Amino acid sequence: RRAAIGRRPLSAKVYNEIARICPREDLLPGLQHVFWWADNAKQQSRSITFIHSNIRTLSVYLHHSSFQPLPIYVDNIVARVPHLTKLEVRADVTIHELQNEIFSLVSRLPELTSLVVPLYFLSSLMMTELSKHPSLESIALAYPAARDSGDPADVTDFCPILVEGAFPSLKKLGFAAHL
Length: 179
Prior knowledge:
The protein is an alpha/beta fold. The protein contains five helices and six strands. The protein has helices spanning 12-21, 41-45, 70-80, 95-107, 124-130; strands at 33-36, 57-62, 86-91, 114-117, 138-141, 172-173. It has a six-stranded parallel beta sheet with strand order 1-2-3-4-5-6, with no helix packed on it. Helix 3 (70-80) packs parallel to helix 4. The longest helix is centred in the middle third of the chain and has 13 residues, at 95-107.
């Protein structure tokens, strides 16, 4: 029988050492997809070490914290991955606690074509804001939806305000709401 190998997160010293010996912003220049599901905000901030302008797909688990305020983390993402085309966002809080940061992130990624969010994150306000994005082709719910956080009350009165020309590039839409 093989003994189970335990998983331990990398020490902060490792990230500091990487930053010291590899100060370039494109640490792994061939890397195009980053999936970073951190357990806390401190681990979340370490993802910045690995993201750069060649990244096209980013999947992150967002955390609020005084360690690194979420707006600063969002600013770092936008600065480092301006050509992002696919974004998946997960969180352990409801959309009304994150919507300003998500609006800020999505609105500043002009090449974004695909957004994946947890169940109950597509509130009326969120859909209204997303309808303005010129390149967004796909909005989908994260899988498995049963594990995601969210509050069904956020989509109970689903009534987004859509103006003429809303969702100019949208081809695929998945959402959960009371209609």
